[in-house]
Amino acid sequence: MMQFALKMGLLVCFSIMVLTLYHEAFIYNGGITSSSFVIKQSKPIDMPLSSDVFSHPPGYNAPQQVHITQGDHVGRAVIVSWVTQDEPGSSSVVYWTDTNPQKHKATGKLTTYKYYNYTSGFIHHCIIKNLKFNTKYHYEVGIEMGHTTRRFWFMTPPAVGPDVPYTFGIMGDLGQTYDSNVTLTRYEMNPVKGQAVLFVGDLSYADHYTFHDNSRWDSWGRFVERCTAYQPWIWTAGNHELDYKPSIGETKPFKPFIHRYQVPFWASGSTEPLWYSIKRASAYVIVLSSWLISSYIHSMYTPQYQWLHEEFPKVNRGETPWLIVLMHSPWYSSNHDHFMEGESMRVIFEPWFVKYKVDLVFAGHVHAYERSERISNVAHNIVNGECSPVSDQFAPVYITIGDGGNIEGLANKMREPQPKYSAYREASFGHATLEIKNRTHAYYSWHRNADGYAARADSVMFFNRYWYPKDDSTTKSKRRW
Ligand SMILES: *[C@@H]1O[C@H](CO)[C@@H](O)[C@H](O)[C@H]1NC(C)=O
Ligand SMILES: *[C@@H]1O[C@H](CO)[C@@H](O)[C@H](O)[C@H]1NC(C)=O
Ligand SMILES: *[C@@H]1O[C@H](CO)[C@@H](O)[C@H](O)[C@H]1NC(C)=O
Ligand SMILES: [Fe+2]
């Protein structure tokens, strides 16, 4: 079924690609920022298992791979997850605030899974609820007599509201190479202090190893713990989370990912952890899956379609002005890599993105950086073959940020000429930040790994599409085309 669906998908993509190639030949390349920045590019190398970043916390049954994510729809709950290796131990979390040392306790759940000949450690997920907004909480895991406990802390977000400033970090396709470590360090050291991470998919790249060696899922969890234990990462599933390998009997897509990374999908009425939404401060974040469990083709009959159909009308821009969508496979990318792979999804969903005035769409998958102008291609359909995107002030800006530094290396073959919709593109590792100032303005920057900590390689002041739909394009002429 999956194989068949994949073939059909490629067929559809291919026919659209032929049309697009034809059209692109007529696109004039003018007024576009194309970075001339070139760095010495060597293929990323995975950090060996003996690396400092992968070290096991000392002590009997010490919790490891600690990570947190939002645990409800508005930010008053947190899901704390961790792994113990020696024995199950406790799934409870003890927590308290900075100002009141009275301790509270929440009880979580334990899960394990097998993948080919790998057996996972004891994976714990514990939701702590009814937290106060804008409050520093300390928490402790591993609370079992004779076991090792570990303490961390996090800040809850401010209450949801239209002018609440909030800063997101954005990363994708991270992996566990020396470059991945630089990306994470750059994010941590960035003077623009990100308060939560929007992660656009492709976490560990464990599937790069023979039999998808799942111990590389564990090492990745230990590597990112220094950030994920202290601030929520909002997870999107990528193709490297599929871990679909029938030849070794692994036919349940997303098995390791779903066991390890819980998300609050139930809080937004979703039936699957692969698509869901959260509100955080002044942002409404919708997470979508580019890959479906039963099919690679997006159609009007998938549960994700049904859910999103009901979801968009629920967004109240008076409460959360900033409407942000995360997905793995970009809809607009002028890179040769994975060119037009997002087409079947774009064709189905793009009209809603324009109708509901989505501000920003972040995707990964392509291992490079690219930012589009506000464009849409809703006029395109297979019947009339009109597939050159046009400037559209009600459309989102599309950002590809799959440049986290994974083992597969940079996607440095761009399609020429640079299409007019592409405002900035560059094959370098990095991360982005989005500083929401109020309901009208959000300052966005892409930070290249090769630069100093405070450098902004690409910056834009985005104007909100609902409250202040002024032209915020950055290409020279700012003309409609
Ligand atoms: C799984 O099988 C492979 C190949 O037979 C072997 O190299 C590896 O050590 C095994 N892993 C475990 C956890 O048994
Ligand atoms: C990873 O980055 C951290 C922080 O910069 C550093 O302390 C550590 O030594 C690095 N490890 C490797 C293997 O690069
Ligand atoms: C919103 O933020 C922008 C950028 O910081 C600022 O210029 C503008 O005055 C703010 N608007 C209001 C109403 O405060
Ligand atoms: Fe990917």
UniProtKB/TrEMBL annotation:
Please state the span of the N-terminal signal peptide per the UniProt entry.
1-20
What one GO molecular function would you report for this record?
Answer: acid phosphatase activity
Keyword Hydrolase included in the entry's annotation: yes
SUPFAM superfamilies in UniProt: Metallo-dependent phosphatases, Purple acid phosphatase, N-terminal domain
Q: Where does the record place the Purple acid phosphatase C-terminal domain?
A: 395-452
Domain (Calcineurin-like phosphoesterase): residue spans on this chain: 167-369
Q: Does the keyword Membrane apply?
A: no
EC annotation from Swiss-Prot or TrEMBL:
3.1.3.2
Cofactors needed by this protein, per the record, are: Mn(2+); Zn(2+); Fe cation; Cu(2+)
Catalytic activity as recorded in UniProt: a phosphate monoester + H2O = an alcohol + phosphate
Identify the residues that the record assigns to the Purple acid phosphatase N-terminal domain, covering every copy.
63-156
Q: Which PANTHER family match?
A: ACID PHOSPHATASE RELATED, PURPLE ACID PHOSPHATASE
State the similarity comment.
Belongs to the metallophosphoesterase superfamily. Purple acid phosphatase family.
Protein name per UniProt: Purple acid phosphatase
